[in-house]
Amino acid sequence: MKVREFEARSVFRRHGLPVPDGVLATSAVAVVEAAETFACDVVIKAQVLAGGRGKAGGVKLAKTSSEAGQAAEEILQLTIAGERVSSVLVAPAVEIVRELYLGIVVDRASQQLLLMASSRGGVDIEDVATADPDAIHRVGIAPDERLPAWQARTLAFKLGLEGDQISQFVEIASGLTNAFVDVDASLAEVNPLVVDDEGNLRAIDAKLTIDENALYRQPEMRSVRQEAEEDPAERRAREAGVSYIKLEGSIGCMVNGAGLAMATMDVIKNHGGEPANFLDVGGGAGVDRITEAFDIILADENVKAVLINIFGGITRADDVAAGVIEARRGLSRDVPIVVRVAGTREAEAKALLEQEGLRAEVSMDRAASRVVEAVS
Ligand code: GDP
Ligand code: MN
What we know:
13 helices, 26% strand
């Protein structure tokens, strides 16, 4: 899960990184106000998840508050990498003397954290890695250890830092490592880390990706996610314990098991249809979860028919069938429903469904062909 710069900055600041103050604003008026309060040159930055905002016109410097308002107006009209810019960060502009790079990722090969620093900051680190790999200095850190100061100092020398910058860099590198570990990140990056006109190091950009598997123990990051503009149907599905991904087609799919969901999409496509979603109600789905799944599928206006593919395993097919029957009673709209049922207690499931006037197929292929027919 990517985190916006504004949130990443607050995590980094908490870990002692020299991040300039900043204010989050959603209108040009608020930006003008913030610029007046700072009473200096400011930078206005689009708060979107994608990087490369500078190149996309999403980062602008302003000398006066009215210039700041103008810049905000322009940035707030942008869409960057498919995300509409709805907020900007306003911060005092830093006079840049040098731009460096500092980042941490998980290195799967060595099963360590990999701290990377380069004197070629402010540009895409992937480009540096290709064009000039020796310009990136690397330090491996065991996951249960922190960054030894001597290693940070060695890096600082390699970057050509001097005087107070050395101890500043040691603090920053260890702060970033601690932040990375504390929030269960998979990537933390300061690009650029700059030397300002007073010779001090400042972190003027912040990038953070959180490992989603750790969100259960990261309440702060979880609430960041809820505020993010996530697809409302996907959020609702997640809260209901259902895996749902919206697609572009017309056939809604409800399936128990992720592998089966993928196979179901394939079979629909083989018959010339297009799935409207990937939806896995999971094992042991009861009436509540199935009802929620129906609602999510039918809320998508593109859905013209639904294919329910039940495979009884540990979860009995007749239990799922009973859930489907019960959930179907309260449907928000009427669309053709085709059911395929196989596996544990398939005969009982089939009988239940047929009592309710739902013809159940045992063959996945036939069920797919029927549902594709229903939408064409
Ligand atoms: P990104 O393009 O999404 O990585 O956004 P950044 O925050 O890295 O900003 C892009 C570029 O804008 C930086 O590499 C800097 O060159 C420039 N920039 C950002 N903030 C400042 C600032 O405070 N002062 C100056 N002079 N330039 C800045
Ligand atoms: Mn950057």
